[in-house]
Design a protein that fits this description.
Layout: H1 10-14, H2 16-19, H3 21-28, H4 34-40, H5 52-63, H6 71-77, H7 90-105, H8 114-137, E1 142-143, E2 146-147, H9 149-153, H10 155-174, H11 179-202, H12 209-216, H13 238-274, H14 279-306, H15 309-312, H16 318-321, H17 327-335, H18 339-344, H19 352-362, H20 365-385, H21 392-404
Antiparallel strand pairs: 1-2
Helix pairs in contact: 3-8, 4-10, 5-8, 5-13, 5-21, 8-10, 8-11, 8-13, 11-13, 13-14, 13-17, 14-20, 17-19, 17-20, 20-21
Bound molecules: farnesyl diphosphate and magnesium ion (2 copies).
């Protein structure tokens, strides 16, 4: 255990388990079609993303390794999980088998099982698939400081490459031979779509009256938007005002769970289950991942107003431009009633987006957003604090949570 107070470098702690992530994913994405292979592996280069999701999966694997109970699950999670998945991948398979045994002999593998390593890769593949589709939906031309896949190859290839990633992630998932884990990660995929749909309801679809009506008439109450009711300003009572504000926030948080927290929460839980942990531990790490995921996205929504495009490596002030009201705007609307109408119409009138940006900065919206994220970070730490035994991995999980509040990109 490192001395208390020291900052843990999670990448160093995870060693080869994390270092080999992108090369393993590239192997899973082998295809006889060279262009499909290039598009699908575009984001899996040495300059890839922050790998937060796989890092969490691996840290949970380490942190729970001494408290896991079900030896039979653990043994199953230790099985060889590789076999050829495309016609020409036999050679890759053999190479990967050598890699697996090399990792099995290393010290890092003492607490991370092959199935947990594969889960880490699956989470990054699902996340990347969602980004490929997201940049098409948002018409975003930069990601990670380089042209997005849609900018480089066009929308059609970006959508198909995202589907391919999901397909290969599903094959790898089914090969873990754990139906509960398959169910958790499949739920994540549908949650990602639901979250994106909830967001569209408030923005793009509203700009397109016909589609908005057809979607709004669906009978899924969980997706009912609180902002679809039109109202006249003179008739709003204070109570109605606060009900609307509460309903908007609930909707925003549900959407945020779906689009970001579900993947983090369910993959943390899946990692614990693959390690043979009991339900109490699996639930604790789920609650950790849920609160951390909410905090992470809330901070992302805040950074959209506070940092430059260069710092972010992607466009900023993007949300209001897309018609989306996130936490800073929802808080600002509680101070400046004129924002209600701009939110209602998805910032589609000229000047709505500039007004929203101005009033966010004139209000306490940014500070209150930071406080909301801080409350979720505290909830995340509390969820694991007494359940996980002290270890460097647990400390890393706590430090990653604290760092969410100070991140700049
Ligand atoms: C980024 O959000 C996007 C997401 C967190 C999820 C997007 C999900 C879909 C497009 C549904 C389809 C899902 C799959 C699995 C194919 P953002 O646009 O707020 O953030 P950004 O600034 O990084 O673009
Ligand atoms: Mg986007
Ligand atoms: Mg988006």
């Amino acid at each position: 255990l490192l001395p208390s107070g020291s900052v843990i470098n999670a990448s160093e702690l995870l060693g080869s388990d994390l270092a080999l992530l992108t090369s393993n994913i590239r192997r899973l994405l082998g295809s006889d079609h060279p262009v499909l292979k290039s598009v699908a592996t575009y984001y899996f280069s040495s300059t890839g993303g922050k790998h937060i999701r796989p890092m969490l999966v691996l840290l949970i694997a380490h942190a729970t390794s001494h408290i896991s109970r079900h030896t039979s699950t653990k043994i199953l999670s230790n099985i060889a999980i590789d076999s050829p998945i495309s016609p020409n991948s036999k050679i890759l398979f053999e190479k990967n088998q050598q890699h697996q045994s090399a990792v099995s002999n290393s010290s890092a593998a003492d607490s991370v099982l092959p199935a947990q390593r594969r889960l880490a890769e699956i989470t990054e593949m699902i996340h990347t698939a969602s980004l490929l589709h997201d940049d098409v939906i948002d018409a975003s031309l930069t990601r990670r400081s380089k042209p997005s896949v849609n900018a480089e190859y066009g929308n059609k290839m970006a959508v198909l490459a995202g589907d391919f990633l999901l397909g290969r992630a599903s094959v790898a998932l089914s090969r873990l031979r754990n139906v509960e884990v398959v169910e958790l990660l499949s739920t994540v995929i549908s949650n990602l779509v639901e979250g994106e749909f909830m967001q569209l309801r408030n923005s793009a679809l509203k700009k397109n009256a016909g589609s908005a009506t057809s979607v709004a008439s669906g009978n899924n109450t969980a997706l009912a938007s609180p902002t679809t009711t039109s109202f006249a300003p003179s008739k709003i009572s204070r109570q109605f005002d606060s009900d609307i504000a509460t309903a908007r926030f609930e909707y925003y948080l549900t959407k945020t769970y779906m689009k970001t927290a579900s993947l983090i929460a369910n993959s943390c839980k899946a990692s614990a289950l693959l390690g043979g942990c009991d339900e109490a531990v699996a639930d604790a790490v789920y609650r950790y991942g849920r609160a951390l995921g909410l905090a992470f996205q809330i901070v992302d929504d805040m950074l959209d107003f506070t940092v430059t495009a260069d710092e972010m490596g992607k466009p900023v002030n993007a949300d209001v431009k897309l018609g989306i009201a996130t936490a800073p705007v929802l808080y600002a609307a509680q101070e400046f009633a004129e924002l209600d109408f701009a939110i209602e119409r998805g910032f589609k009138e000229p000047g709505d987006d500039a007004l929203a940006i101005k009033l966010v900065h004139a209000s306490n919206g940014i500070e209150r957003t930071r406080q909301l994220a801080a409350a979720f970070c505290a909830e995340a730490i509390e969820a694991i604090d007494t359940v996980l035994p002290n270890s460097d991995s647990k400390t890393a999980l706590i430090q990653i949570t604290q760092a969410v509040l100070t991140r700049k990109n």
